[in-house]
Amino acid sequence: MLKTMFDIVVYMFATYGFIVFLHELLVSIKHSRRYKNSMIRLVLMVKNQGEVIEGVLRNALQRDFIRKLMPDGRLTVLDMGSSDDTVDILKKLEKDYEYIEVLKKCEMESVFESFDDKEEQYIEVERIEKN
Hints:
Blueprint: H1 2-34, E1 43-46, H2 53-62, H3 65-69, E2 75-79, H4 86-96, E3 100-104, H5 109-130
Parallel strand pairs: 1-2, 2-3
Helix pairs in contact: 2-4
Keywords: Membrane, Transmembrane, Transmembrane helix
């Protein structure tokens, strides 16, 4: 009797896990199709936030906040010249999480370059579609 109840509970959890997996897979596919050519980019600008930045980012990443919010699931963190250990913490997080990109203030222009490249691609696609 106890083994049968245990088996039923295990099957229920397995079924629930499979349904959640399928749901997340479908949401991910839908999300990637909708925002395939999106020109949205999430950039977090920080300065001297060594005491809190790791907690903030790990909390957002654990809840899968970035993937749900952003089309490409990436977060660019732009350090604006911190004099504390913020850059070291960000570099460590960049190694731990593949979808974090850490840039320094001198690399700020690279944030805007991707928009210029995409804009040129859109113009070219529109020309092709018109012909």
